[in-house]
Amino acid sequence: MARIAWLNGDYLPLADARISPLDRGFLFADGIYEVTAVLDGRLVDSAAHLARLQRSAGEIGLCLPVTFDELEAIERELIRRNGLDQGTTYLQLTRGTAAERDFHADDDLAPTLFLYTQAKDIIGNPAARTGVAVVTTPDLRWARRDIKSVSLLAQVLAKQVAHDAGAFEAWLVEDGHVTEGSSSSALILTADGALVTRPNSHAILPGCTRAAVQVLAEQHGLRWEERLFTVEEALMAREAMLTSASNFVLPIISIDGHAIGDGRPGPVAERLRGVYIETARAQN
Ligand code: PMP
């Protein structure tokens, strides 16, 4: 079955989707994106992802060319046409295609909007059972990480560091403190039972999954603490975990080769993963 994408108003086979090399997304990474999980053929935390999309667009001076309702309708139609049960929708919005490569863009450019879906067995991911390894690496990103920019070179290089070390994710470090993962939010559980994660600011992307997990953690009596934490503190943590739309909650069993806790997935991470999945399933 040909995979179907949506580009600037049309559903078409992904293999036939064409974007100009003069698109500003290609030339300047002048665009933003969003990734939303799909579970049982339905969108997860869609309102939060749409809100973040709108915020990212606004922060770089773009307007969404379609309404939230229209976007959700396109996503649902893509899910249907691709027979997607589990995975993600990917959406990218760029400032559009100009006649010449020029840093300055005219206001009247039509933005490029592209969506497609990716299948992934998020629930059955073996990493949820085994836990994952993380390595730390300097955070080389720009100063507005709260914008979900398609300028992802620093994240790509960080993920390569992780891959080369046989790890699943890289935790990015700035001034001795963990900011977040290259494509996920970072959390630790301290010895006294607090879930610690960095407060939202320009330094990190506000994770939609993390925000949902906060609600669930507090409902389950866990203390939620938003503050900076160092790599040393993370190494001493009782548990560590990451959250993202494409992985939900994953336990971290080692950082830079040092075992976290007893080196096995921690009960709090496992419980939060379980309740997140239950809540996601009950959403629609
Ligand atoms: N931080 C970064 C840098 C990310 O790329 C992601 C994944 N989009 C996240 C955090 C997690 O965000 P979410 O839970 O909304 O997927």
Task: Show the helix and strand layout.
Elements: E1 4-7, E2 10-13, H1 24-28, E3 31-39, E4 42-43, H2 46-59, H3 68-81, E5 87-94, E6 112-119, H4 126-130, E7 132-138, H5 153-164, E8 169-174, E9 177-181, E10 185-189, E11 194-197, H6 208-219, E12 223-226, H7 231-235, E13 239-244, E14 248-255, E15 258-259, H8 267-282
Parallel strand pairs: 7-8, 7-14, 11-12
Antiparallel strand pairs: 1-2, 1-6, 3-4, 3-5, 5-6, 8-9, 10-11, 10-13, 13-14, 14-15
Bound molecules: 4'-deoxy-4'-aminopyridoxal-5'-phosphate.
Architecture overview:
It is a single chain. This protein has 284 residues and is an alpha+beta fold. It has 2 domains: 4-119, D-amino Acid Aminotransferase, Chain A, domain 1, CATH 3.30.470; 127-283, D-amino Acid Aminotransferase, Chain A, domain 2 (Alpha-Beta Barrel). The protein is 29% helix and 29% strand. The chain contains 8 helices and 15 strands. It has helices at 24-28, 46-59, 68-81, 126-130, 153-164, 208-219, 231-235, 267-282, and strands spanning 4-7, 10-13, 31-39, 42-43, 87-94, 112-119, 132-138, 169-174, 177-181, 185-189, 194-197, 223-226, 239-244, 248-255, 258-259. Strands 7, 8, 9, 10, 11, 12, 13, 14 and 15 form a 9-stranded mixed β-sheet that branches. Strand 13 (239-244) and strand 14 (248-255) form a beta hairpin. The longest helix is centred in the last third of the chain and has 16 residues, at 267-282. It is globular. It starts with a strand and ends with a helix. Bound molecules: 4'-deoxy-4'-aminopyridoxal-5'-phosphate. Residues 35, 180, 183-185, 205, 207-210, 243-245 line the site of 4'-deoxy-4'-aminopyridoxal-5'-phosphate (PMP).
